[in-house]
Amino acid sequence: MRTPLTCLVAGLVLALAPATAAAGPLVDSDADWAHAAVVSADALARSQPRLAQAIASDEPVPSRSGQPLFIDASWRVPEAAGALLVRIAEGADSPAERVGLLDALSRTKGDWSSAVVGLLASEASPEVRRMMVEILREAPVDAARAGVQLGLADADASVRAAAVRVIGNHVDGVELGDLAVSALSDNAVVVRTEAARSIGYAGYSAGFGPMRSLLADADADVRFRALRSLQKLDSTKVVGLPELSTLAADADPRVAREAGKLLGR
Amino acid sequence: MRRSTLASTGAMLLALTTLLTACNKDKDDGGDDGSTTGDDGGDDGGDDGGDDGGDDGGDDGSDPGGTFSLTGEDELLGVANLDDDDGNQTHDWDDADADDMEIVPLGYAADTFEELGTNERVRVELAGDIDSLRLWADGGIVLDEGTTEAELDETVDGSTLGIEFKMPMATGTLTLTYLDNDGNEVESHTTHLQAAPLILNHHLQPAEWAVAVYTGRGTLGNEDFIDGFDAVLGDAFDTVTGASVSYDVWIQDELEYGTMTAPGYEMQLVIDSIRSGRDQYLDSVPEDMMWGEDTAVWTWGSGGATSQDSFGNLEVSPPVTVDGVDYPFGRVYYGDTGRYAMTDAMQDMLDEQLVQAPFTLDIGWLCVGHVDEFMTFLPNPDAPKGFSLYVVDIDVGREFLEGLDPDTHLPRYSSGHGVDSIGEMLEHSSMWSYNDDLMVEHIEPNIDILKEELGLTEADIIRVPGVFERSSACGGTALSLIPGTVNMQVHTHEDGVNADLFIPDPFLREDDADLSSDPFIAEFEAMLPSNLTAHWLDDWSTYHLMWGEVHCGSNTRRSPVGQWWTDARHLMED
């Protein structure tokens, strides 16, 4: 461990100060997960000091696209989660490296979801916030919902897009479908596109009606994605949509081709 | 200098090269008195005594002159002089050494110009890509971009005249004009100068040598991977020490081998990517390991790189005929995300080579964004065109998985991807929805592009089972879930048909050590023709989980095949 236990707990709670001030009721639970993370890290330092040391200090290796990653297989155990959370919360690594640490965290199968949601509220880097949200696809649905809600309220569109992606990737995504619907009217094209995609992937049938309105979206990517996702929800119903004849003459060739294909059925 | 077998002999080159003949200076003589400056071939039927120095007393300063004449061929071919013969870490072009082997002789006899009268001259003019052309004579540079016109007198040793090219596909003209005593133009002859195109390699070319980065033993080590190559290739395989390159294992992405050939000349050229600059990571490997005699190194572009500047994103098809047009060296293809593509300087250079007519594929859906992630070409003598395109197919992947025991435990996937079994993989409905979209929206359209640009049909294509995951660390774009089988290294034998394939082990099995129990391996090997030998390499930790596979982590030098100056002229015409 790089820092004594008490210092880490204090540091983590301090790191949460801005968020807790805003969120109020979360103070106690945040402190709980922070404390739990530090205790877990301390336990790892006692039981597996080499692993704890590695997690605390190992340098990442660049992926093929240059993203720093930590892929040591020995980290992929639940008891590594606490130590990883401590390193992430300390914030001494670069944002790209912290993205790599979050990737490693998501592979531990440990209990990290509430901690990530807690850290998300106070994280300054949009790149890191995006990844914090992304990995919630592996979290229990309640934690995922809390994180997606935070993500959808983010000022950065890439974080909001990540939030709706969670819905499409989560094994229980259908339970989060209402959140994707709320993102269909986002002012960012990427968010509307990902919301439409996720409603389809999650199979959230109640999203059919709201998503239909995107067939008239000003952006061709959104129209295309809505048309594709509507088919995933109800491939019969979509064939009867009156919008298809307009879309078959769409200026975007992908949209026109997709609509023409449906009209031909 | 390695002499190409394609080029036959130096005499042949000389015979084809521009020749200048000085005729008998005596107007009344028929030219058979042995006083001409011979062209060393004696093929003018009357000059068999002409190589005697030509000093028959005509150059006494009082001769009126006016009888010098020019003959010669129309073209001179060479290669860009970017290798480093003396190992001084400088391009030979910049060394400007008159004895350099890549200076192409113009083919004159030593005494050619002795026949000029005292006041007679031969004007030489250089035009075209003059920053990439030089005329040498008497051990010095006569013409270059700073001096495009000069006059030669009778003192010039004709045998020292030669052309040097700097860059591939440099073109120009050299015009020689005979000026009489009064400076009047008597006659002239123009030779077209043409540097070889840089031709990138395809998988039907024989492989000479392969290389990978050795990261040692341990959890991130790749000893098995390296041993796999070494066991098959032996001396034809080398490694770069991982510690010397900050453990950057992506040597496919750092450099791309191509070749430049001309009659009598053969040179490898290593394109050094801009992906890692300033001696970081693998940046210095092309210069330190490969640059030398007959191996050139050059970088096109500068500044900030994207992933699309990596050369896993730059590949070549085998030779094809498209709408009646032959592409004997195949066609270059690379990926373009719509927002990002390789640097303009590289794209421009590839376009300028003409003979491999580049086209682009959609790779915006891939996390890393390289064309080698979903397709490759393999020699296949049983196929209609002598090769097959192997491409990932999601539908084939699902059908394959559905035929397996769903309870098959997958230890590697459990640890690396959070998927414990075949059944769990199949039950992941949102993952399959995502994969269905990839197939319909990206993979099939790419196959359509390949069919159109390469003249392929379904009979030329073999569809390989594949599944992608949606990467959280990569903004929701695609990474291979089952190791990208097609992302392999193809080590073709000298016959251009048989080949050793180094393929990522899919580990779609319970027992790590028992490859014979892996249904994916059995399935894929059944898809291979008998000329191909599969070698399955463990690339899991060092490559697969780092978003690459075997091809990404290795590189291959290949032998040039064919003669562009005879086989690809039709692609070089306006």
Key traits:
A: 265 residues, two-stranded antiparallel ribbon, 2% strand, elongated, disordered N terminus, B: 574 residues, alpha+beta, five-stranded mixed beta sheet, four-stranded antiparallel beta sheet, 18% helix
Question: How would you sum up this structure, described in words?
Answer:
The complex is a heterodimer of chains A (265) and B (574). In chain A, 63% of the residues lie in helices and 2% in strands. With 265 residues, chain A is an all-alpha fold. Chain A has a two-stranded antiparallel sheet. In chain A, a hairpin with a 5-residue loop joins strand 1 and strand 2. The radius of gyration of chain A is 21 Å and the shape is elongated. Chain A starts with a helix and ends with a helix. With 574 residues, chain B is of the alpha+beta class. Chain B has 12 helices and 31 strands. In chain B, strands 3-11-10-5-8 form a 5-stranded mixed beta sheet, with no helix packed on it. Chain B has a 4-stranded antiparallel beta sheet with strand order 4-9-6-7, with no helix packed on it. The radius of gyration of chain B is 29 Å and the shape is elongated. The A-B interface holds A 61-67, 69, 71-74, 76, 99-100, 102-103, 106-107, 109, 130-131, 134-135, 137-138, 158, 161-162, 165, 168-171, 173, 194, 197, 200-203, 228, 232 and B 219-220, 247-248, 250, 253, 281, 307, 310, 312, 367-370, 415-416, 418, 428-431, 433-434, 437, 441, 470, 472-476, 541, 543, 545-548, 552.
What's this, in brief?
The complex is a heterodimer of chains A (265) and B (574). Chain A is built from 16 helices and two strands. Chain A has 265 residues and is an all-alpha fold.
Biggest beta sheet summary of chain A:
2 strands, antiparallel
What shape does the CA trace of chain A take?
A: elongated
| Arithmetic mean of pLDDT of chain B | 88
Most extensive chain contact?
A: A-B, 43 and 38 residues
Outline of chain B = elongated
DSSP strand count of chain B: 31
Low-confidence stretches of chain A: 1-7, 16-29
Distance between the termini of chain B: 33 Å
Structural class of chain A: mainly alpha
Query: Whole-number average pLDDT of chain A?
Result: 90
**Proportion of β residues of chain A?**
under 5%
- The topology string of helices and strands of chain A comes to HHHHEEHHHHHHHHHHHH
* Uncertain parts of chain B: 1-64
Number of helices of chain A: 16
Largest pleated sheet of chain B: 5 strands, mixed
The chain-level structural class of chain B is alpha+beta
Number of H/I helices of chain B:
12
